[in-house]
Amino acid sequence: MTEQNLEQGITQDAPQNDEPGLDRDVAVVVDRVSMTYKVRAKDDEGKRTLRRRALDFIGTATVDVHALKELTFVAHRGESVGVIGTNGSGKSTLMKILTGQINPTSGTVHATSTPVMLGVNAALQPQISGNDNITLGCLAMGMTRRQLEAKRESIIALAGLQDSIHLPLKSYSSGMSARLQFAIATSIDPDILIIDEALNTGDAQFREKTRQHLDSLRGQAGCVFLVSHSLGTIREMCSRVLWIERGELIMDGDPAEVTEQYNSYAGQMGRGRIKRPRQQREALKKQLVKTDVVWSP
Amino acid sequence: MTEQVTPIGGTQRVQVSPEGLVKVGARPGFFEYARQIWQFRSFIHFDSRSRIATGNSDDALGRIWLVLNPILNGATYFFVFGVLLNTAKGIENFIAYLIIGVFMFRFTTGSITQGARALNNNQSMMRAFNFPRATLPLAVNVRELMSQVIVITTMLVLILAIPPLERITWLWFLLVPVVLVQFLFNLGLSLLLCRIVTRLPDVVNLISFGTRIWLYLSCVFFSLERFENHPGIYQAMQLNPLFCVLDITRDILLYGNVPSLERWAVLGAWTLVLLIVGSIAFWKAEESYNQERA
Q1: Residues of B in contact with A10 (CB under 8 A)
Q2: Among A37, A287, A293, whose Cβ lies nearest the Cβ of B9?
Q3: Are A10 and B2 in contact (CB under 8 A)?
Q4: B-contacting residues of A 33-92, CB under 8 Å?
């Protein structure tokens, strides 16, 4: 990123602004978002007050877990943003906050429309038929009856369930219902799309179909977030990568550069080293260009 | 390695215009929320219909249980209270009296016990889709209303078939507003309980006790005249909204009386208060239903 760009307050991928200072084509603004979970557990540290002991005894004592520390970034239309980080780094928490599934402890997320998470997370009802599950899922996503009927054929085709769509779901194999879930979840045309490691379901034939379907969805969507452990996929598909580690954003930039750093970090961690990765983390945090969002009136 | 990164650091300021952006996960205003629920009406309708169709799909007799359940319940109460304890004293046509009590009371217990758990029972739906959460307790109540139509039809058939026979009068049409008001009453109470249960799941354990005590206090199988000599209890019993529902229904179907205005007023007041308090309480916590419980 050049000095000039920094002054104008735009990132590399954003088109040139006519009006310097105001960031155009914004898709998602994550402004000072943090997340702290309260988890039911005994707290062995700290003072053993009477209240603490009583709560421990009933089993309702809680401990704070800081899943995300304060985090700010802006994503633009046309960007596909990869999100990487080791397990437990807070990636999934961040994605859930983006979709409004959970609310951050502090901070706000603004977007052109509520981001939609794609995955195998459509809820299916085992008692009713595949067809009725399509109806229920699509209506729950806010489709109208007409939109739903227009989509039905393509959902059935993508799931490859032409023969068994009238049977109750409990008669499906787990692969069949996973395919149906995926087909329902991806039937809307979202403006902002989040893909959370959704690529690895089903058999080889279905995987190819999924890939094509996701490619076309990505083409239509204004902005895509891709959460994956596959650095190859990230490099291939993304124009920008966020690296989140221990609930903090430590790198934000070019996919090749970020994945290379991440690779060496994960390698060190894998070998059980502690000091080198920590130094790397500290150094990266110092180099990170932090974002400060200013809301224009 | 770390050395390869060009050192930059610092902070970039990004100016953003809020125009064209919406806040994710924000609770809409009350009337906007109501409008969103209206937009999800097909979802509510389909959800309640598909559940009613499959509610008993594992049972050999299937949907017949919808009718069989209150009949068996009524038979049990008839045996225990009518035959063994003889609470029927002074009630003419006790069987019809009991049938109305059991069948109409069932509507409220079914609605609120299911309604209170509507969010806790549908966690997977809520994780997968973004929709106004009030649609879930609403769908439960609509489903119970649909079931109640079948149950009431059975009730009328039984009243007409078991002697002493009752005459059909124009008053029977008043059954429609009774059921609609009871539906709104159930809905208000469900929304309120749903809010409480999602915050404090323990309350679910108390609801079944609550409805049982309520059943015993609502003159399902004895008459109010028993307490004529205890003015305090006598007055208090008449403030019970479900007693009002049962009394109005009996007036209409059994006694051919126009139900008293007092009963309508008590029932209407409860319904209005619960509907307002319930929907505001539920709406206020809309954002918190998404919070994952650890």
Answers
A1: 14
A2: A287
A3: no
A4: 37-40, 62, 65, 74
For chain B, domain boundaries: 34-284
CATH code for the domain in which residue A250 is found: 3.40.50.300
Domain boundary among A167, A185, A203: A185
The answer to whether residues A75 and A11 belong to one domain is: yes
Contact at 8 Å (CB) between B40 and A139? yes
Residues A107 and A217 placed together within one structural domain of the fold: yes
Query: Cβ separation of B13 and A22 shorter than 8 Å?
Result: no
Question: What integer pLDDT is reported at residue A3 of this predicted model?
Answer: 43
For residue A31, list its beta bridge partners: A108
Residue B133 CB neighbour total at 10 angstroms: 26
8 Å CB contact of B5 and A284: yes
- The position carrying tokens 């307002």 is B276
For B265, the 3-state DSSP assignment is helix
| Model confidence band, residue B211 (pLDDT cutoffs 50, 70, 90) | very high
Tokens of A73: 């970034």
pLDDT computed for residue B105 by the predictor: 94
Total number of domains constituting chain A: 2
User: Are residues A90 and A213 located together in one domain of the fold?
Assistant: yes
The Cα–Cα gap between B267 and B253 comes to 18
